[in-house]
């Protein structure tokens, strides 16, 4: 599975017989960091001498995926993930850019911390790392962090979130929404009414009643979303709703978009497939915030993603130490990993079921998240169309492959995947970041750092 | 059945078998020498993460009457996020060679984790987990109900043997939301054929209760007058539940007592044969008045005695593998040579 350094340093790659966006077979030439040619059959004479040929074998070619919601844990919890390990996992999952959430230790609430994360990410070289800035100092929900300083830093932060905690104070939320208009920022809200979820452990409903685990009502999410879309409308700002999980939330977003409110919404892969029934074994692998909901909610978020009410899929990749999951449910941490399974789950739930085409997948996992994060233009643009002249951020997927998930075999430093032991469709075969392979034959290209000069 | 984790795991036949075994155990407890040799050489650990003197003593008595060695392991005061992890505790008990672990824990599901995580080989008995289950309480309640309502208590412990609770109506009154006793009893009593009505203020009924195999009433007087229950089981209500910090579930203890307390007035409307139950400890004057608690209808003290017999049965069945209802009868003799010797 290893590759000679010379191959990774090649200036060009010919992806032969791939299916761009799942369409007709084509030869795709990546050269000098851009997509140089897309043709049904590139004449042998026009293939550059130094080009490495990758046999496409009907694999689907997509623009590199962009995750708007990743927990890389560095600085602070390098025992569970580092920027290096997390971004390597991202590359193996088909991503070429991730947004690193702010709930690190220290919190990413200053220009200093976001620049540090950005630089370490750049040096790791697996994907573009775009730090998310905290909305409030220390995620405490009291005082605005220096959003302007973070926006103007080298990290050019545009997404702000207290994720993990809700910006609960309506005045603080209003101020944040207003303030980021100055630099075209967006507030990504973790919608969780705190009083309604004190001590909450899982979705409140039939299963929680039986299991005796404190309930987390859907209304605790929906009430905040309803408030926030009205606030966004009032101040004419841009709102992004993180990981919505209930049928009611989908309805509220649909209503808000119908009114012309500038709101976008995300769903996680796990909320597309898992339900609160998973809690019955009291296995804290399935403990996550927001909690797994009911089948009706799963159906609603799939429908919302299919009809465009939900704009994106984002992983909410949340690595945790083994001791924080190897314990009783109430003592366990919230969260599950997702970078290396996201595309497979989307294929299983949305593509293989006919709800989305591969072109739609490119929209919800690449173009839309890049646009929301305002990383879709400029020198390091992501989420661009699959077209000649665009940056060669490309992922090759073998949709016919099937694999059984093994948390310990993943690139992420933590093993808390909810899909352990399950068979999922699809496999990322190769990932290219601006023409440079970060993944080949499904394995990370380890000398990636030595060829980081592609940027 | 290697473990007893939830009353909902028991089939009707299994539950009746446990009750019948308990009846045989109870019959031995009126003898001068109460100790049976059955579990000699076996080790039962009482692992209590939460205060419960009553339940612990009941299990301890049960295990000792079966001649098991008993270790009390109190991890009281260690919250779910502090102290030694459940895993390390389990590995310690495994290393000490526990045959059965009786666990009381404040976290719902902790006994499931002990039973399934692979840390322990021992049989796990749930002695109450969070707001989830307390299966031996339900079994002792079912045992008490059967003796009084399906048999004739005057005829002794084995009266009612073989019977279930078909056709009986049981009202369970109080803080259902936080009650593992209510959850366990709804499951077990309905499995045994009884009809259950839960009575509570709406704030103390869980969202999702609509799928439970029982009725829910907010009106105790109507349930007593119209439902004519054969038994009324009062649940303990914690006074702190009324404070806003405790959740603000009801306005005041007085209002709770007026609407949901079992007092002399309500006692008087009950059918003659109706029994009054309480898992203890009682809040006299809150959910139950002294008149009700001390009335001839009350079987509360008897529930405690039956608890020992039921827990003897559960430990015996789990540790000897005799949980198949078709299996041989319990060897309950105390007159073997070895036992005489042991007690000499």
Automatic annotation (TrEMBL), chain A:
Broad enzyme group: hydrolase
UniProt xrefs under InterPro entries: DHOase (IPR004722), DHOase/Allantoinase_Hydrolase (IPR050138), DHOase_cat (IPR024403), Dihydroorotase_CS (IPR002195), Metal-dep_hydrolase_composite (IPR011059), Metal_Hydrolase (IPR032466)
Occurrences of domain Dihydroorotase catalytic (ranges): 59-246
Cofactor: Zn(2+)
Active site: 316
Positions that bind Zn(2+) 1: 69, 71, 163, 316
Substrates-to-products reaction catalysed: (S)-dihydroorotate + H2O = N-carbamoyl-L-aspartate + H(+)
Keyword Zinc among UniProt keywords: yes
Pfam family, one: DHOase
Record-listed substrate binding positions: 71-73, 103, 289, 320, 334-335
EC number: 3.5.2.3
UniProt pathway annotation: Pyrimidine metabolism; UMP biosynthesis via de novo pathway; (S)-dihydroorotate from bicarbonate: step 3/3
Binding site for Zn(2+) 2: 163, 190, 243
Transmembrane segments: none
The family this protein is said to belong to: Belongs to the metallo-dependent hydrolases superfamily. DHOase family. Class I DHOase subfamily.
Described function: Catalyzes the reversible cyclization of carbamoyl aspartate to dihydroorotate.
Name of the featured protein: Dihydroorotase
Organism lineage string: Bacteria, Bacillati, Actinomycetota, Actinomycetes, Micrococcales
TrEMBL record, chain B:
PROSITE patterns documented for this protein: CARBAMOYLTRANSFERASE
Domain Aspartate/ornithine carbamoyltransferase Asp/Orn-binding: 166-318
The gene coding this protein: pyrB
Catalytic EC class: transferase
Pathway(s) this gene product operates in, as recorded in its UniProt entry: Pyrimidine metabolism; UMP biosynthesis via de novo pathway; (S)-dihydroorotate from bicarbonate: step 2/3
Catalytic activity field: carbamoyl phosphate + L-aspartate = N-carbamoyl-L-aspartate + phosphate + H(+)
Domain Aspartate/ornithine carbamoyltransferase carbamoyl-P binding as annotated: residue spans: 2-146
Alphabetized UniProt keyword annotations: Pyrimidine biosynthesis, Transferase
Gene3D superfamilies (UniProt xref): Aspartate/ornithine carbamoyltransferase
General function of this protein: Catalyzes the condensation of carbamoyl phosphate and aspartate to form carbamoyl aspartate and inorganic phosphate, the committed step in the de novo pyrimidine nucleotide biosynthesis pathway.
EC number: 2.1.3.2
Region Disordered: start-end pairs: 325-344
Name of the molecule in the record: Aspartate carbamoyltransferase
Record-listed L-aspartate binding positions: 82, 180, 236
Phylogenetic lineage: Bacteria, Bacillati, Actinomycetota, Actinomycetes, Micrococcales
Protein family according to the UniProt entry: Belongs to the aspartate/ornithine carbamoyltransferase superfamily. ATCase family.
Matching Pfam families: OTCace (PF00185), OTCace_N (PF02729)
Annotated residues for binding of carbamoyl phosphate: 54-55, 104, 134, 137, 280-281
Matches recorded under InterPro entries: Asp/Orn_carbamoyltranf_P-bd, Asp/Orn_carbamoylTrfase, Asp/Orn_carbamoylTrfase_sf, Asp_carbamoyltransf, Asp_carbamoyltransf_Asp/Orn-bd
Family matches, as SUPFAM superfamilies: Aspartate/ornithine carbamoyltransferase (SSF53671)
Assembly: Heterododecamer (2C3:3R2) of six catalytic PyrB chains organized as two trimers (C3), and six regulatory PyrI chains organized as three dimers (R2).
